Amino acid sequence: MRNSNKSIFLTFVFILLLSNLVLGAELIVNVDGVDRNMAAEMIESKIFVSTESLESFGLDSQVSGNEITIENEDVEFIFVLDSNQVKVNGLSFTLASKTYSKGNLVYLPLRFILETLNYKIDWSSNTNKVIANKQAETQFPLVIEDGESRYVVEGEAATIVSMAPGVTEKLFALGVGDRIKGRTQYCDYPAEANDIENIGSLYEPNLELILDISPDIVIAESFFKQGILDKLEEAGINTVATSTASNMEDVYDYMLNLGVIVGKEYEARGLVASLKDKVSRVKYILRDITDSEKPSVYYVVGTGQSGEYTAGRNTFISKLLSITGAKNVADDVEGWNYSLEKLIDHDPDYIIGAQFNIETMLNGDNYQVLSAIQNNKYLLVNEDIFSRAAPRAVDEGLKTLIKLFHKDKVKELNF
């Protein structure tokens, strides 16, 4: 997995070093060892380049009305002028920035394009150049390692059984929902997923039904019975069963692996680049928020007589809260188990959770001492958005949290 702290640091350095780029400047981009001059502009830490400059990357461009098409033999981008809308090989995304025109030039977001094209981007402080090196395309067999588990995918999957709601969401986000021939009863998003054959629960799927479907691959995530997967493997069905992502870097890696499995590498890289663009935008607009301005938050996963359960510091939810300029009070534990004593001691500014859990707190005597309950500073959320570690966590989840913690910043999100 990638080192998320290193990635964040490099991104910050990249922004600082580019802060001296002026509007209309010539930017030098070293493309696979060759310097290229590009017409570039810097707007709020993002580099935009003219369509003509993209010829350095083997891309042809065409402007028709408000649509800007740039393409080569493998990929087609269609941007909408003065909009944050873009399509990559027909799959639609939104960005946290808009394309625009200036004089006779049309400017497009450089990082999004390069990352979709599979370039690794760095900044050379010695030469003041953007360094763009094309990375090798992933080839089959694809090896996926998760802890002590190791999975090998031999080729592209045309038929899939999804054994997790998060897997189903991510496959639909890649535009291959029609390849899913079986899904669990909990796979309820998007709505089209409900039309797919129901193979049962996460722990007790209908093995015979899965065997009848005879998919190219079965993909599970966190909650599954190893015995079921072993039987599928014995029947000659390829399986992949990995942990749910615990941070954004894991989400990116997961999406890229799925892209390879379904033969949608460009679309997966475009999706990941769009998510990175939004996360970067959130960090940019919150760059001046001080520690004293960061609200303390408790995300309730379970509560009441069964005990207190929340998202500890090693969870995806905790990382998401951190991105939005909040302090997770449960960062003092790992995992999901918590205590009422700890919750009362921390007395968070906000409490977030599903309706059932929030109502339990509102009606429970033990929670009336909490400031968030007394001051009505709680938020009912669709917990699926935050727990499934899928693109919705960025597209909808980040915006929901920013509205709660930093309402004055919402208009600056641009997505």
**What's the overall geometry?**
globular
Global mean pLDDT: 92
Radius of gyration: 23 Å
Please give the share of residues in helix: 25-40%
How many individual helices?
13
What percentage of the residues does DSSP assign to strands (E)? 25-35%
**Spatial order of the strands forming the largest sheet:** 9-10-3-2-1-12-11
Count of individual beta strands? 24
End-to-end Cα distance:
28 Å
Largest sheet: 7 strands, mixed
Unreliable spans are 8-23
Give the helix/strand class: alpha/beta
Provide a descriptive summary of the structure in words.
The chain has 415 residues and is an alpha/beta fold. Helix content is 31%, strand content 27%. The protein has 13 helices and 24 strands. The protein has a 7-stranded mixed sheet. A hairpin with a 2-residue loop joins β4 and β5. The longest helix is centred in the middle third of the chain and has 21 residues.
Task: Describe this structure in a few short sentences.
With 415 residues, the chain is an alpha/beta fold. The protein has helices spanning 4-17, 110-116, 165-173, 207-213, 226-234, 248-261, 265-285, 316-323, 340-346, 355-363, 371-374, 383-387, 392-405; strands at residues 26-31, 34-43, 46-50, 60-64, 67-71, 76-80, 85-88, 91-94, 100-102, 105-109, 119-124, 129-134, 142-146, 149-153, 160-162, 180-183, 217-221, 238-242, 296-302, 308-310, 327-328, 337-338, 350-353, 378-380.
